[in-house]
Write a structure and sequence with these properties.
Elements (H helix, E strand, L loop, with lengths): L12 E4 L2 E6 L2 E5 L4 H6 L11 E4 L4 E3 L2 E5 L6 E3 L1 E7 L8 H4 L3 E9 L1 E2 H9 L5 H4 L5 E3 L3 E2 H4 L6 E6 L2 E7 L7 H8 L9 E4 L7 E2 L5 E6 L5 E8 L1
Parallel strand pairs: 3-15, 5-11, 6-18
Antiparallel strand pairs: 1-2, 3-4, 7-10, 7-16, 8-9, 8-15, 9-11, 9-12, 13-14, 13-17, 17-18
This protein binds manganese (II) ion.
Length: about 230
Amino acid sequence: MTHILFPLPDPVLVPVRGETAAYAVRRIFCVGRNYADHAREMGAEVDREAPFYFTKSPAHLTLSGATIPYPPGTADFQHEMEFVAALGGAGFRVPAEHAMALVYGYGAGLDMTRRDLQGVAKDKRRPWDTGKDFENGAILAPLTRAADFGTPGPQSITLRLNGNIVQQAHLGDMVWSLPEIIAHLSTLYHLAPGDLIYTGTPAGVGPVGPGDRLLGEVAGLDPVELAIGPAA
Ligand code: MN
């Protein structure tokens, strides 16, 4: 047995409603521009050619209920409320009609974004990493098993900032449905248990600052809660 020089922290463990075992996170995939009204507010049109993705490091995932420091390097830290699928099955080149069999459960999540850094990256045709993939950049509520939730579609998705609704839509408003996303993503990656898919955000994204509180709800799921503290 080879000893490890600098042992890594354990993977982030997400609680599951009604389950004593936890869900270990392996990878985080995020879908870009998956609600037409959000694409529009970002100055883009929805591209029906294919969905596109960026990733976040699993080490950057923080569980719901946390207070996170205002992150470094930004003056425009923004919220994106998202419906998250947690995979429990493996698959490669999975047809859409079989894609939902890979889903273990669902959670309410926040794709936190350093919008100014993302904007510079877009302008200069650089990667989005520093705008999207940073410490505490992904937030996730406890999961609900897929069978206890039903088929995504009619459920509302809502985000409150300090009690006021700022984002509201229905899961059926997504440009690419979850089975379409899984089918397409599985042409690019060998999907496996522990993979999370953040499915995109509706319109109404905006800045948060120290002292702000976010409460995100998807009907039928545990809410995601986040408080923003002072800069670290
Ligand atoms: Mn997003």
